[in-house]
């Protein structure tokens, strides 16, 4: 693949977009992490902070993510990182984002989540006011911690659903936390008004994606390995289950060593509804406009194709029907110019 240009084209930057697979903690850039650590009385150098963002493979990435999140301690920390994220979304012309929060990690660390959520909500409220960004939260459980721990995450999501919490998900080690153990938790969450997502087919086999579909997941995070099973690709296309594609993420973690081998274009050609996403933009050194640029350079997506993918991102969102229609009307008006 040719190296990406320093700055994506103005068409890609100005294209109205939504992002559906974005981890709050993975969006903390090194300068913000340095600021957080200084707030806590530490005196690290920028070089020491930058070192936390270096890893060689998926296991190393998970460790780096863990090390970065260890520096999130107070409600004010969460307020700051939420506000900074929304500021960057504005720069990318991302109108709406559905953002994962690692609630499972917060509970595992025995943090005061009620206080943390107030920080998240303050950051979201300020960001909406200052940047006009729409943001909904998805509460993410850590699958290798088991079904009981996940249920506590899902119960918190339901508790806060009147405060911009729209759905639940599971991430982490697919092999240590197979989808079937979350069947009861997902059914309970759906019964209580939650929308359902799941990371699947990132490190696990196609069976992991089938398992997520059996959980009634409405969107699939990554879905990288689904292409090994043509019946699964056909199923995803026929049912129009959105697949949240994260190109740079899969490349940087070594799960797809050659971007040209990524199945994104094949999915698109087979009628699968795909969206483009950054996953953990600060940790992968990417932006949403750059993901569109990578897709165009690597797979030959035309500008018209990319408009279709951007429209998909609003179509696949968990926004209420009337709000989704507002964004689609905005998008269509902008795309017609």
**Known CATH architecture:** Alpha-Beta Barrel
CATH superfamily: Metal-dependent hydrolases
Question: What percentage of amino acids are in beta strands?
Answer: 5-15%
Order of helices and strands: HEHHHHEHHEHEHEHEHEHHEHHHH
According to CATH, the fold-level topology is: TIM Barrel
* Shape descriptor: globular
What's the alpha carbon Rg, rounded to whole Å? Answer: 19 Å
Q: Work out the helix count.
A: 17
Q: What's the level 1 CATH class? A: Alpha Beta
How many structural units, i.e. domains?
Answer: 1
Summarize the structure.
This protein is α/β, with parallel strands linked by helices and 337 residues long. 51% of the residues lie in helices and 14% in strands.
Could you name the key traits of this structure?
single chain, 337 residues, alpha/beta, TIM Barrel, eight-stranded parallel sheet, 17 helices, 51% helix
Written description of the protein model:
The protein is an alpha/beta fold and 337 residues long. The protein has a single domain (10-335), classed as Metal-dependent hydrolases (TIM Barrel), CATH 3.20.20. 51% of the residues lie in helices and 14% in strands. The chain has an eight-stranded parallel β-sheet with strand order 1-2-3-4-5-6-7-8. The radius of gyration is 19 Å and the shape is globular. The model has no long low-confidence stretch (mean pLDDT 95).
Element layout with pairings:
Blueprint: H1 10-14, E1 17-23, H2 30-39, H3 46-51, H4 58-69, H5 75-91, E2 94-101, H6 103-108, H7 113-131, E3 134-142, H8 147-159, E4 165-171, H9 183-191, E5 195-200, H10 206-214, E6 219-222, H11 230-239, E7 243-245, H12 247-252, H13 264-269, E8 274-276, H14 281-284, H15 288-299, H16 303-315, H17 321-335
Parallel strand pairs: 1-2, 2-3, 3-4, 4-5, 5-6, 6-7, 7-8
